[in-house]
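Late entry, evening session. Most of the bench is empty. Finally got around to the prediction I had been postponing all week. Sequence below, unchanged from the version circulated by S.P.
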Amino acid sequence: MRIATWNINSLRARMDRVLAFLERHEVDVLALQETKARPDQLDLTALQEAGYEVAAHGLNQWNGVALISRVGLEDVRTELPAVPAWPEDGTGVVEARALGGVVGEGLRIWSLYIPNGRELDHPHYAYKLRWLEALRAEGARALAEDAGSRTMLVGDFNVAPLDEDVWDVAAFEGKTHVTEPERAAFRAVVDAGYADVVRPEHPGPGVYTYWDYQALRFPKKEGMRIDFVLGSPAVQSAVTGSFIDREERKGKGASDHAPVVVDLDL
């Protein structure tokens, strides 16, 4: 089974790219982030005609997540337990940042778009840390309930866990994505039992999944590694290969993220 995750930065703007990507790489399940649309705003006809089921979750033109599967899609959930609302002043809502479903033979996959954090002194930073803690808690709960469960946590984590995961760590001094609290929150998810199944085959430095549109970051090879596929022990032992499709960051109309692809033998 081939699983991919991709921050698409607007599904409506890049539906043609998604269709071509699915066909070119024969992807069975694609998790998308930043779809930037409500489900009723998406024309899914071409995906359905290609044999895919789609579950999408979005509240407005921001955030949004989706799962696209040609190997079944059941038990769809649109939020993680205990995820905080935003803003956290009593007026907020639970944003469209998580969507889970069961595909294939009992593989639970979550498409995740972790909050950005904005600035270190911004309330969004604390919100990001609480969101990651909610993810850790749910991951730990799932494995405590069934240590053999097949679970994948995939998507845009908006955290660079290691210094080598950014093109110049000095350029991020005093900024989000590289702070120790963020990295500790990411490690806590890993320590709960969900290993990065791509890094062992594709270690850094210089292995990135995101390049800002500004300042010609992509041609300068000035990127960040912030998109991950984390798998439970049962998934880790089933991985047969992986790659990051940098070609999808090229050309007119590209997303600022590249897809991350993992092959499993379940």
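Two things to note before I forget:
The chain is about 20% helix and 25% strand.
The longest strand covers residues 107-113.
Will write this up properly tomorrow.
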